[in-house]
Write a structure and sequence with these properties.
Structural class: mainly alpha
Distance between the termini: 30 Å
Number of strands: 0
Shape: elongated
Oligomer: single chain
Number of helices: 4
Strand content: under 5%
Helix content: 55-70%
Radius of gyration: 15 Å
Order of helices and strands: HHHH
Amino acid sequence: MDSLPVVHLSMLVALQFLTRVPVHMHPFDPAWLHASARHFPLIGIAVGAFGAAVWWGAALVWPPAVAVLLSAFSAGSV
């Protein structure tokens, strides 16, 4: 991970902190979490957009209750 630019590293740390997506970084520096806070809104928007897209696609095929459950699981809310 040393070869990644600081912006990409911060985004990966934010992705790992806000979701269940495993991002392996060894060794981890706790200062990275502080630096990644600026990317929290962007990662949040991306996770929300992904969940909405899953809901929209699932609502075309299944009843609304099933679509809501699928979108919640896909966005890591459950």
